[in-house]
Amino acid sequence: MGTGQRKDPSQQRSQETVARILSATGQVLRTKGYTGCSTNAIAEAAGISKGSVYQYFANKDEIIEVLIDKIMEDATATFGANLEQAVAKGTFLKDAALQTQLLAVLDRYRDILGSLLNDAPHLTLSAHRSVRIEERCRDLLRTYVTLNPSAIGQGVDLDALLLVLTVSYREVSLEYLRRDLRDRRNELATVLYDMTMGGLAGGATRGV
């Protein structure tokens, strides 16, 4: 059962109702923002009664929590596919393409996540929500170093570097959404790439 849900939607009809509620919540957040989002607005957008909403969720925040998890699952699957494709093509860490793709994936959900980051800081995109993709990225970077030992400088602590990179990528992603930095996507992607490669080499990185 998803986070915050009162009733386990095990039946197909129940699953369809929950899907409608989540979709309607996304629509309301896009058009009205967090402050204009309510269970009444969600029910109206979903075409169901308010009572039907309360069968599954206690309030709008519980709905939004589940919606955020769904978004992160989708974002993880999308970016994970990009990672796998880069590995298969041999282009992993050849340039800033993956960093650009990461920010582009976030842009798909900007209207929802940006509103929540600015208007509902208590509903955070916490670390546990991005842990799967972060673990995959760390595994791939370890594999990259194993296959390309010359890519890492002498004396570089890979575990420490991975910790710094994980936190840095997460915080840049959040700030990218919070401040709407779409016009600087390529520059930010390049800096993230330079930071990654510079960290591996043990050298200095370029700034924006």
Automatic annotation (TrEMBL):
Residues 38-57 bind DNA. Signal peptide: none annotated. Keywords: DNA-binding, Transcription, Transcription regulation. GO terms for molecular function: DNA-binding transcription factor activity; transcription cis-regulatory region binding. Residues 15-75 form the HTH tetR-type domain. This is DNA-binding transcriptional regulator, AcrR family. It comes from Rhodococcus jostii.
